[in-house]
Design a protein that fits this description.
The chain is α/β, with parallel strands linked by helices and 339 residues long. It has twelve helices and twelve strands. A seven-stranded mixed beta sheet has the order 8-9-10-7-6-11-12, with helices on both faces. A five-stranded parallel beta sheet has the order 3-2-1-4-5, with helices on both faces.
């Protein structure tokens, strides 16, 4: 079995590989990924790979692992099944990282919409450290898993809860992210918020799908600031969603604002369709706090000006989680070390 030092060293080297990846190879990876999911284009695959590479830096990994008592060699490794999501490229990588660094055996079930990218990264990891061959398995079923980490919709989560009831598990449900606006944001900050909304075409749980704004908020500066993001409309599937949602709003007489590639409409719901940003107004800080508290269990993250709102990220940072930002706020490493 590999020591923790061996395992950590391999992931650090994987980070170096990703940071020095030639453009031609990135294009190849994006092309292969897009065969299974049209939204996995070159910018999205590149952004996902850059995000993983930023996690796999020596100092960051060592500081993260220092918080836990991880044995050099796991005396009783368990088979941990990980049901990967497929909404953004290689989104299940962090779970794989945790399982392998904890010294367990990874039984990964890649998403049907992302069957190439994560297996490719795991294959590279084995090339770097052949000892991982015994720790990594790609599976279709979770029958042999001792514990399970599964990510899906609220509906599939209910099925997961039933199927894996007798095994230790982490079951993740639908989550989304929101923005807190004051009206005092700079053009640069609003442009960064545009990234939080539109990166990965709005498909990730860390994508902002709703904004909380003061009463009588003027969206004109926001629309002006995000005009440079209009290339999202060049993607046919995004444009199809935009056209469809626009027609629904027009036919039903739903009041909305529209800049040609993103619509904004007032709505109490949290999760907006692709190409739409919901908003809700607040009267004061207390009102805002109550509104956010009421939906806390459904939020992945909050963004705000200079991260002034408690436990929030600065604009533009929603899709840049550090290695210790756990999905749904559940400490995956702590779960794995208790198995």
């Amino acid at each position: 079995m590999l020591t923790l030092e061996n395992r950590l060293s391999a992931f650090i080297q994987l980070g170096v590989y990703l940071r020095t990846l030639p453009v031609e190879e990135r294009r190849y990876l994006a092309r292969r990924a897009s065969e299974h999911n049209n939204f996995f284009d070159f910018p999205n695959v590149s952004a996902a790979l850059d995000g993983i590479a930023s996690m796999l830096q020596k100092e960051q990994l060592e500081a993260w692992l220092a918080q836990y008592d991880i044995p050099q060699i796991n005396p009783s490794p368990k088979k941990v099944g990980v049901v990967m999501a497929g909404n953004i490229p290689a989104v299940g990588f962090h779970d794989a990282l945790c399982v392998l660094l904890a010294g367990h055996i990874l039984q990964a079930k890649p998403a049907s919409g992302d069957p190439f990218l994560l297996p490719h990264l795991l294959s590279k990891l084995v090339d770097i450290e052949p000892g991982f061959q015994e720790q990594i398995q790609l599976v279709h079923m979770m029958k042999e898993s001792d514990a399970v980490i599964a990510t899906g919709s609220d509906n599939t989560a209910r099925h997961f809860e039933f199927y894996f009831a007798n095994r230790p598990h982490i079951i993740r449900r639908n989550r989304t992210s929101v923005a807190v606006l004051t009206g005092n944001e700079t053009k640069e900050e609003l442009a960064s918020l545009g990234d939080d909304i539109l990166q990965y075409y709005g498909l990730g749980c860390r994508n902002v799908s709703k904004a909380y704004v003061p009463q009588d908020y003027d969206f004109t500066p926001f629309f002006e600031a995000i005009q440079s993001k209009q290339e999202v409309a060049n993607h046919h599937k995004y444009q199809n969603n935009y056209d469809y949602n626009k027609s629904i709003y027009l036919v039903n007489g739903v009041p909305h604002l529209d800049n040609g590639f993103l619509m904004v409409t007032e709505n109490q719901q949290l999760v907006s369709p692709i190409s739409v940003l919901f908003y809700e107004t607040y009267t004061d800080q207390q009102d805002l706090g109550q509104k956010l508290e009421a939906v806390q269990e459904k939020l992945q993250c909050v963004v705000s000006k200079e991260a002034h709102w408690p436990r929030s990220f600065a604009f533009g940072q929603a899709q840049c989680p550090s290695v210790n930002d756990y999905a749904d706020g559940v400490d995956t490493m702590e779960f794995l070390l208790k198995l």
